[in-house]
# Entry
Amino acid sequence: MSDVTDQGPDLHTVVIRFAGDSGDGMQLTGDRFTLSSAVFGNALVTMPDYPAEIRAPAGTLAGVSAFQISISDHDISTPGDAPNVLVAMNPAALRANIGDAAPGSTLIVNADAFEERGLAKAGYDTNPLTDGSLSGFTVYEVPMTSLTIEAAKPSGAKARDAERSKNFFALGLLSWMYSRPTDVTLEWIQKRFGSKPQVAEANTLAFKAGYNFGETAELFGAPMHIHAAAIEAGTYTNVTGNAALAWGLIAAAHLARLPLFLASYPITPASDILHELSKYKNFGVRTMQAEDEIAAAGAAVGAAFGGHLAVTTTSGPGMDLKAETLGLAVSLELPLVVVDVQRAGPSTGMPTKTEQSDLLLAMFGRHGEAPLPIVAARTPAHCFTAAIEAARIALKYRTPVILLSDASLANGAEPWRLPRLDELPDISVPYATLPNGTGADGAPAFLPYVRDTDTMARPWAIPGTSGLEHRIGGLEKADRTGEISYDGANHELMVRSRAAKVAGIAADVPPVEVDDPAGDADVLLLTWGSTYGSVAAAVERLRRRGRKVAHAHLVHLNPWPANLSDVVGRYAKVLVPELNMGHLCSLVRAAFLVDARPITKVQGQRFLYSEVESAVLALTDS
Amino acid sequence: MTDVEIPITTRKDWSSDQEVRWCPGCGDYGILTAVQLLMPELGVRRENVVFISGIGCSSRFPYYMNTYGMHGIHGRALAIATGLAVSRPDLDVWVVTGDGDGLSIGGNHLIHALRRNVNLTVLLFNNQIYGLTKGQYSPTSEIGKVTKSTPFGSVDHPFNPVSLALGAEATFVARTHDLDRKHMTETIRRAHEHRGAAFVEIYQNCNVFNDGAFEQITRREARASMLIPLVHGQPVRFGDAGEKGVVVDVQGRARIADVADVGEDAILVHDEGRQDPGLAFMLSRLATGPHEPTPIGVFRAVERPDYGSLVEQQLVAARERQGPGDLAALLAGGTTWDVD
# Structure
C-alpha cells in the first residue's frame, strides 16, 4: 500500500477533526493519526475534546467526542482555528462540530449513521446530507459501517463486533488522503490487540479497507502531501500536559536527589497527574489520595517537614480550600509545590473547560502578607520543564511555589523531544546537619530562622537529625530563633524578609525574551500560560500583514524576570491576551504605570489565533 | 537500633526552654508532666520524635517538648502528621489536639487517619469547651450548655469521642483523665506501643471556662464508684468493693448491674482484642456524659497493618518487580520516533 504515486497537491498545513460518539474511539483514532504524522516528520499540535458527561446517551450531542490535529511542514504552535477536514461518524458529531468547520472545508461522513433514529437523536428534522444545508462544503458520504462489516468478515468477528472497527476504516481513509505511513499503525494494532487476534484482524482489515477505499473509489482525487518539517534532531514522543507535568515532578525529585511525595484529592482536570504518579512506585514515589483538598495540602506540608519533595495537585476549587495551608507553608518556609490545573470558574464552573482565571488567586489568595513564587507552563511539553523549575525554586528558597497549568495544556498533546538527562539542572539542596548558632546558655544551638545571606532561605533541618530538634508553627516567629513572637518590629522584619526572599528570586530567573526580529515593533503582546501558542501564531500572521508586533511570554509570574519593566516600557502599546478578565494586565498596569490593554476571552476555550489577530488590529488601528 | 544505643534521659532532656503559658491550674499541665516523664521510658531518641498539633490551648503542647515539633493550623494536625508519618515511617509521630480542633474543624481528618490506621499516637484533650477563643461550646459540650455563644443553652447533640473513634474502626482506642497521672501514663504508654493509629481521649479540666466538667467522676473520692476501669481479660467491675459490674443482657444491651444480683459469672470479661468493635462501642455508650459511671482504659487494641507500612511495602514490591526507577526509560516509555 505504500507505493502510492506521487501526484497529489502539496499542502503546508491541514487541520483535521475526528468527531464521533464517545464509544466510537475518536481519541484513539486521533492518537494514531498523530503518531503516523509524527513518525512521518510533520510538525503537529493536537487538541482532544471530551464530553463532560461520563456516559452520555449514545448518538446525542452531549456524547460527542472529538480530536483535532493540525499537521504542517513547518513549526506550528496551535491545533488550528478551524478544521479543513471534519470526519463525522454520526449526525450528532456533524451537528456538534459543523459550526467550527472552515467555509469550503471537506466533510467526510459515515453515511450509514444518517438514518431516521440517528438524525432524530441529534435533533435534525431533515437529513443534512440531502436538505442542501451543507452546500458550502465538499461532502463525501462514505458508508463506513457497512464497508467495515463487510471488510472484517474474514476475521470471523460478528457484525456487532466488527462494526466497532469503523474508526479504523476512517483512520485508513484519512491515512490515504494525507499520504501517512501505514506500517506504524498496523504494527500498533498488532501490539495493542495482540491478545485478541480476532479484534486485531478486524481492525487491520477495516484500516486497510479504508485506505484502499480512498485509493479506488475515485472520489477523492489524489492523495495530498504535507512534507516533513525541519525539526530539531532527537528522539521524540507525544506527551500531554498532565503526563509531562507528572514526569517533570519525578525528574525534579531525581535531580534534587529527594524522594517524591504527592498528596491529592481527585479533581478535574488535574486527576491524571495523580493517576500518572501513582504508577511509579519503583521510583520511590509515594502518592496519597487524601480525604479532601485541605488534607492533601496538609499531608504535603508534613512530608516537606520530613524532607521530601512534597507536592499537591488540584484545580481552582481545591486552591480555594488549600489557601490556609499555603499560608502556613509561607510562614513555615518549607519547600512545597502546588499545582493548579486551572479550569473555568467561579465555583464548579465548567470543570472540563479551560481558563486562566486563577492568576490573581495565586498571587493574592491568602490572608495576611503571604507572597509566594508562581511559575506557569506554556505548552503541554513545557509542563515538564515548568515542574522542574517550580521544584527548583521551592527547594532553593524553602517556599511554597504555585505551578499554573490549565485544562487545555493538561489534555492537549504535542511532540516532545526527549531531554538528555545531562541537560537537566542539578536542583539538590543540602539539609542542615549542624547547629548554626548559640543558645541562651552559650551552648551550640540550632536556630531555624537564621537566613542564608544569599538566598534568604532558612535552613531545612529534618526530623531524625540529632541536635537540631526545633519547633515551628504558624504563629509569628522571632527572627533567627523561630520562637513565638508578638513583637511588632519583629513582625515587620519577618513580613519584609519573606517578601524580600520571594522578590529576590527575580535575580535567579532568566530574563524575559522578546520576539521582535527587526527590533522596530511598536506593539508588544505580553502573554503567560497556554495562550502562548495562539498568540505566537497570531503574531506571525500580523507580521505577514506588515504589522510591527513584538511578543514576550512570561513563565515566571511572581516574581517577574528583572528585565520586564524595561521590556514593557520599550513599546508604545502593550496588549495582554488572557483567558480571564485581565489579571496579568492589571498587575502590569499597577506595577509599571503603563497603559497596558487586555484582550480577554472567557468561553472555556483557547484563543483562536484569528481572534487575537482581530483584537490586535482593532486595538492598534483605533 | 537496639535499646543499648538509646541515651539515658530524664524529663529535663525532653522539656524545651519555653515558658509554659497555659492558665494556672489548667489540666494541660498534668498531661504535659505525664508525657515528659514518660518519654525517657519509651526507648526512643529525641531526634526521632515529632509532636504535631493544630490550634487551641492543647495545641501549644509541641512548643514545650524538646523534640521536633509543628504547631499547625486549626484542625489540620492529623493531615500534616499523616503526611509526615507516611513519608517518614522511621519517625515517632505524636498528635496533640482538642475537642474543637480534632472533632469540629478537624473531624474529617481524625476519622480518616483512624480508618487508614496511620502510625500515630493521638492525644485528644477533651475539656468540652473552646478555651483559646474564650468560652464557646464545643462538639463535646452537653446539651443545654450555657456559653458565650449559647446564652439560651446549646441545642447541639454532642459527640462521644471514643464512640466516634470506634466507629471509624480505630485499632487502638482509650480514655483517661488528667487527675490520675498513673492511669494517664500507662494508657499513653500503651498507645505509644501500638503500631498504627492510637487514639486516647483525655478528660481535661479547663478551670477557667468549664471548671469541674469531669469532677463528678474524676475527683479522687468519686473515682471508685464513677470510673469503670477496663482491664483486658478482667471482669468489668467497679465500686469500692467491686460490687458493680457490666453485663450484656439477653436483649444485647450492656448495662450496669449489682454483682450480687447477677452473679460474678454474668459479668462481662473485657477483651480489648475483639476484632468486632461492636462490644467496645457498647461500652463507650454506657455513660451519656461525665456524670454517670464511665469506662476508662483501653477499649480496643487490635492489630491491623498501618498505612505507612503498606505504602512502603508497595514501593519495595515495585522495586523488586521493576527494578529501581530509570528516568530516561520512563520518558521514552511511550511510542517514540527519531528525527535525524
